[in-house]
Design goal:
This protein has 311 residues and is an alpha/beta fold. The protein folds into two domains: 168 residues, Rossmann fold (3-Layer(aba) Sandwich), CATH 3.40.50.720; 132 residues, N-(1-d-carboxylethyl)-l-norvaline Dehydrogenase, domain 2, CATH 1.10.1040. Helix content is 44%, strand content 17%. The protein has an eight-stranded mixed β-sheet, sandwiched between helices. A four-stranded mixed β-sheet has the order 4-3-10-9, covered by helices on one side. α9 packs antiparallel against α10. The longest helix is centred in the middle third of the chain and has 22 residues. The two termini are 34 Å apart. Bound molecules: NADPH dihydro-nicotinamide-adenine-dinucleotide phosphate (NDP) and ketopantoate. The site of ketopantoate (KPL) has 10 residues, from α5.
């Protein structure tokens, strides 16, 4: 068993986890928690193209001794791994320990807010990072993070974390409507990610006429579902407001291979369960049709099954 000396525990040392660790390490105690051995010598390429190498302590979750209360636990696994990891973690930390969920979508957030024994913050970020290998990541682009909790009970904690992240060079703000922010990001992810992952194209391809009918159908379904849930787009209203937001993101990220496409490229499961499933569930709850979203989900499931067969 390996000891842990306090500070920020970052569980899931992938792109986002290591980016947070690199940012926080100069001013805060940081420990990465992994599921397999990783080198402690870690390199980050900044959005400005600078390369920085740091020693980041890494402990395997299975080897982590029970600990008191770290400052915060950041959960930075993919959404589909988060609940199982949280169950393992809960056995090792004091019950009041705060958890920060960095996952996209709206699956693990309500569920772990109910189940985790301490405060749960949710973060929604437009920072962009990707993994090069076990010792290197790229922070591809600066973004912004918003942080809050689903029931508005931990705003002081959200403010304190946002200030810590901002001081560390990751612009962040505390918000009292994180649920709305998560759904708004989910709407963008649901409109863009499944299509680009299925057609294996960069985001900018969705500007082409051949995708217009499918993109329009997806956005109309999302708009109806979110209207029933009382979630409006950040500006404008209805399907036109969502379309404007999605078009803006497509334009701004035209060269991106979206995260779901990167998962397809790497033959990994996608986060469709965190992005499409909550919309489909809310559509069923509100007795709204969502044939386009359901078809995208089924096609992605088929693609993932084919990868599993490949091996
Ligand atoms: N990358 C980005 O720019 C952004 C990511 N996000 C969200 O953040 C989340 C993480 O994304 P990202 O960092 O890209 O994903 P990655 O796949 O790069 O990282 C996930 C990490 O979790 C690790 N992990 C999986 N299971 C466990 C476990 N049981 N114990 C410890 N670690 C585990 C993986 O380890 P292993 O390598 O061994 O599989 C991997 O290091 C996703 O929900 C994503 O949607 C949101 C906005 C931006
Ligand atoms: C907004 C978008 C689609 C940008 O690529 C994204 O967040 C992702 O790749 O998951």
């Amino acid at each position: 068993m390996i000891g842990f000396t306090g500070g920020h525990l970052i569980v899931g040392p992938g792109a986002l986890g290591r980016m947070l660790a690199h940012a926080l390490a100069p001013t805060q105690g940081v420990t990465l928690i992994s599921q397999r051995a990783l080198p402690a010598q870690q390199t980050l390429t900044t959005p400005e193209g600078e390369t920085v190498t740091r020693r980041l302590p890494v402990i395997r979750l299975a080897a982590l001794a029970p600990i008191g209360s770290p400052a915060l636990i950041h959960l930075t696994t993919k959404a589909y791994a988060a609940e199982a990891v949280a169950v393992d973690l809960a056995e090792k930390v004091a019950p009041g320990t705060a958890l920060v969920l960095w996952q996209n979508g709206f699956g693990v957030q309500p569920s772990l807010t109910r189940r985790w024994p301490g405060p749960v913050l949710c973060a929604s970020t437009t920072e962009g990072a990707y993994v090069v290998d076990d010792a290197a990541i790229v922070h591809a682009g600066h973004g912004e993070s918003v942080i809050g909790d689903l029931h508005g009970r931990h705003l002081a904690l959200a403010h304190s974390l946002a200030a810590t992240l901002t001081r560390a060079g990751l612009k962040a703000a505390a918000v009292d409507d994180i649920g709305v922010r998560l759904w708004q990001k989910l709407a963008v992810n649901a409109a863009i990610n499944p299509l680009v992952a299925l057609y294996e194209v960069p985001n900018g391809a969705l500007r082409e006429a051949r995708f217009d009918a499918e993109l329009t159908a997806v956005i109309e379904e999302i708009a109806a579902i979110l209207a029933a849930e009382g979630i409006a787009p950040p500006s404008g209203s209805g399907a036109a407001g969502w379309r404007r937001l999605v078009d803006k993101v497509i334009e701004a990220t035209a060269d991106n291979r979206a995260s779901m496409l990167q998962d397809v490229d790497a033959r990994r499961p996608t986060e469709r369960g965190a992005i499409l499933a909550p919309l489909i569930e809310r559509a069923e709850h509100n007795r709204l049709p969502c044939p386009t979203l359901a078809a995208l989900d089924a096609r992605l499931a088929e693609k993932e099954a084919a990868f599993r067969l490949e091996g």
